[in-house]
Amino acid sequence: MIKRRNLLAGGAALAASSALYAWADSRFTSQATDAANRPVLQFPPLIDTVDTGKFLVTAQSGTTSFFPGHPAETIGFNQAYLGPVVRIRNGALRPSVANELSWPVSAHWHGLVVPGNHDGGPHLPVKPGEVWAPDMEIGQRPCTAFFHTHIHGRTARDVYAGLAGVLHIADGLDRERGLPDTYGADDLTLLLQDRRFSSDGQLVYANSMMDIMHGMTGDTIVVNGQVGSVAAVPKAVVRLRLINGSNARIYSLFSSDDRPIHLIATDGGYLPAPVQLETLRLGPGERAEILVDFSDGHGMSLMSEGDPNAGMGGMMGRARGLLDDITEGRRFEVLPFLVDERLPAKVTRIPDVLGGDQPDLTAARVSKLRNFSLDMGMGGGMMGSGGMGRGMMGGMAINGQPFDMSTINERVRLGATEKWVISTSMLAHPFHVHGVSFQVISENGREPRPESLGWKDTVVVDSQTELLVQFTQPASEETPFMYHCHILEHEDVGMMGQFTVS
Predict the structure, then answer these.
(1) Which residues make Cβ contacts (< 8 Å) with residue 385, sequence separation at least 6?
(2) What percent of the chain has pLDDT over 70?
(3) What digits encode the pLDDT tens for the residues 140-199?
(4) CB 492 within 8 Å of CB 152
C-alpha cells in the first residue's frame, strides 16, 4: 500500500526542495544536452477490445523507478504507475474496474458520451475488494479519451500518484483516411504530466495553500510515466495523440525547429481537414491529435511555453529556490524525437481531408441560457485531515456555491441544447463537462482558437467562454453528471457542480 508520508510531503519537504530539485537537475544534465543518450520512450500496454468488447483494469499499488536506482511508491491501473491504453469500438462494451487498494477509487470515462450511471464519477465509487462492471453501449465519433479516478476530495492526489489511463475510440478507417495507425511506431500515445520528486526519487505531493490555489505543478516533465526519455520515430509522418494528464499545468506546445504541427482531432473527434498550427494550447484533461512530418530525416523536440498561470507558479518557485525554466514559465522541453530509419515509413504526406464533422449547433433551438462563474479566494480552512479541505472559507466554488455531493445544482432536459457562459476573473481554468460533447462558439468575445473549433468536452477559460451544449444522455439524481474545473486541486476543494438530465 502506498505510504502517505512519502506521497504527501509537507512543510519539511518544501523547506528542503531547492536541494532536492538541484539533485534531479544535475542527475539529468547530460541527457538534456544529448538526446541520443536518453532511454527510448516506452508506450503503455495496449488492450484491444475490438473483438471482445470487454476489458479489466485493476487499481493497485507498486513501485516505479522514475530515476534509476530510486524506486518510488506509486499506484496505477494494471501496473505500478498509470494504466493501459484501451482500444474500443462503438457497440456493446463491458469494462470491469477492480480495486486492490485500501480506499475507494472510480473510473471516470473522460470523453465518453454515456449515461450518468456509466460515467464513473464520484457517486460511483469502487470500494476496496470490489469490482464495478457496467453494461455500456458506445456510440460516438472516433477520438482519444482519458480515464481516471474521480473520488471527491482525493481525485488530485490519486491521479497524481498514477490512477489514469487512455482510451482510443476507433472505427478501423484510419488507413483509408491516410493516417498513421501502428500503435507505438507511427501512432504515438503521449500522456503528459509534470511532477515533483524528493531526494530519494519519491513523488512529492506538496498540498500547501499556494499549491491548492494555483494547482499542483512540478519541475520535472514525465511522459508515459518516464523521465528523460526520447521518442524514436520513422522517417515519415507521425501521429501524436496528446493527453494532458497534469493536475494543473497548461501547455503551449510547439516544435523546436519551427516545423508546423497539423491538428487533426480535438477532444471529441476528427476535424474535417488538418489545420496547420505553430502552437497548440492544451489544458488539463484536454486531448489533441497532431501530425508531424519527419520525412526530412531530422529529429526535433516538442517544446512548451510557460503555463499562463505561471505568474503565481513563478512566485512559488522563487520562494522555494526553484529557478528552472518550468517554474519560471519560460520555454522548456517536453519530449525530444529522433528519427530511426529502420522503422517502416508508412505515411509520407499529410492528408488533405479527414472526413470529420465541424460542430454546428447554432441552428438548434437554444432552450436555456446558464451562466457559471468560476470563483476562487484566498480564504482559510483549506487544509483538512486528508490533505484537501472539503470546505474553503471564501475559496473554490462555482456561482458562489462550493461542491456538495448531496446538492443538484442544475436540472437539464434530455435532448435539449443550451448555451453555457463560463467566466473567470482569476487564473485560467480548464472547464470540463461530463457526458457531453459541446461546441465552443466564442472565447473572450472573439472567434474560438483553432484547437477549440472541433467537438470538445474540456476547454481552457481565461476570461469568458461561450458554449453550445447538447444533452443526449440521461443522468439521475443518484448518478448525476459533473461540471468542474479540471485543475484537480480546484475540483477537490469545491470548484465543481452537478446536474441531472431527464
Answers:
(1) none
(2) 86
(3) 999 999 999 999 999 999 999 999 999 999 999 999 999 999 999 999 999 999 999 999
(4) yes
Closest of 372, 104, 342, 384 to residue 234, by C-alpha: 342
| pLDDT per residue as tens digits for the range 77-120 | 999 999 999 999 999 999 999 999 999 999 999 999 999 999 99
Contacts of 103 (CB under 8 A, 6+ apart): 128, 151, 154
Longest Cα–Cα distance of the chain, Å, equals 60
Q: Tell me the sheet residues that pair with 252.
A: 281, 305
Residue 386: predicted pLDDT: 37
Residue reference for cell 514559465? 329
Q: Quickly count: other Cβ atoms within 10 Å of residue 50's Cβ.
A: 12
**Residue found under cell 470529420:** 356
Residue 35: closest CA among 346, 341, 342, 340: 340
Closest CA to 212 of 459, 434, 373, 391: 391
Contact 7, 203 (CB under 8 A): yes
CA distance 198 to 203: 7
Asked whether 196 and 202 are in contact (CB, 8 A), the reply is: no
Residue owning grid cell 470523453: 111
Tell me which residue of 44, 59, 45 sits closest to 96, measured CA to CA.
59
pLDDT digits (tens, 9 = 90+) for 439-477: 999 999 999 999 999 999 999 999 999 999 999 999 999
**Beta strands of 102-169 (E only): which ranges?**
108-110, 131-132, 136-138, 143-148, 164-169
Cell numbers for 350, please give them: 499529410
pLDDT of residue 378: 53
Q: What is the pTM assigned to this prediction?
A: 0.89
CA 177/CA 49 separation, integer angstroms: 22
What band does 7 get if pLDDT is binned at 50, 70 and 90?
A: very low
